[in-house]
Amino acid sequence: MVLAAIFALAAESAIAQPAKAAPGARNWRPSKTPWGDPDLQGTWTSDDCIGTPLNRPANLGEKRYYTEQELAQRESQLAKQQQNDLQELVGPDQRVGTGPPSHWVERARRPCRQTSLVVDPPNGRTPDLLPEAQTRRIPEGANNNNPKADSWEDFSYYIRCISRGVTGSIFPVIYGNGQQIMQAPGYVTILQEMVHEARVIPVDGRPHASPSVRSYMGDPRGHWESNTLVVETTNFLSNRTGIGLNGGGTPTSDALKLIERYTRTSSSELQYEVTIDDPKTFTRPFKVAFPLTQEPGYQNFEYACHEGNYAMSNSLSGARAQEKAAAEAAKKK
């Protein structure tokens, strides 16, 4: 049902022109809630930056944005992809894979201007890992090129349907990029589509919880700086999720601190940025930024992760089958 709904949205979406700032956009101000806070409410998506790499290709150096000509080429590629998604049958000269058809995933509606999600340091690449962080095991399903399937504990928290972490839950991936923001006096809640996270963020000035209270998503505290929601999150569990897409990559430490900024720049666009500071993992803090947009008809769908999680059980049973086959082959020698 969820995939069918995604298909319907993908089929209906039109390729839009790259967003251009309207006259006076720099002076645009959001409306206020009845209690006086800037109104960020609505369902937002990072779909426009699907496919934008976290780390900028080294050959692009400090080039943060694509040129207008390059954006036009990428727009043409998006239009071609949309036409391919509408095809019901595979062409006679095309290879048939075992994965789902391409129209099951979500697509950007306009080309992302950025060459990478990382915007600081200027080279657009995550800083080097500290020696102690380089020894941490990257779980199966979290960009691990040497997978191990001895136990369910060898799999990432994403594959196990537990959590993608804060950054992994908002960075753009192939589908499920919805971020529904709701506000009440003293609180902002962000309901994230994939792995059903609900971040309840107090904005009433209360201090962080005791350092002894830790969780996968940390302990967020927010405040307003003019029209920007600033969220500081600490108190993370160590060695759970990384900073990569879907929480992949080297797991972060209990010293991780995130500073997020949500700024509504127009009626349909919100600029998101996060500064990542983990002195036990990276050699320096770094920043990721990208736009979130509101799109007609876009909504969060149920993410029934456990109910459809065949990947982990199939990987475990497949590993046991390989071990059995290897043992039987050894007996014949």
Q: Major sheet: size, sense and barrel closure?
A: 6 strands, antiparallel
**Helical percentage:** 10-25%
- Coarse structural class: alpha+beta
Q: What sort of overall outline do the alpha carbons produce when their principal axes are compared?
A: globular
Beta-strand percentage?
15-25%
Kindly give the count of domains: 1
The stretches of 5 or more residues where confidence is low (pLDDT under 50) are: 1-25
- Please give the alpha-carbon distance between the first and last residues: 50 Å
Mean pLDDT: 87
What is the number of beta strands? 10
Query: How do the strands of the widest beta sheet line up side by side?
Result: 2-10-9-8-7-6
Helical stretch tally: 5
| Elements, N to C (H/E) | HEHEHHEEEEEEEEH
Radius of gyration over all CA atoms, rounded: 21 Å
Write the layout of secondary structure elements.
Layout: H1 2-12, E1 42-45, H2 68-85, E2 118-120, H3 131-134, H4 165-168, E3 178-184, E4 187-192, E5 197-202, E6 219-225, E7 228-234, E8 257-266, E9 269-277, E10 286-293, H5 310-331
Antiparallel strand pairs: 1-3, 2-10, 3-4, 4-5, 6-7, 7-8, 8-9, 9-10
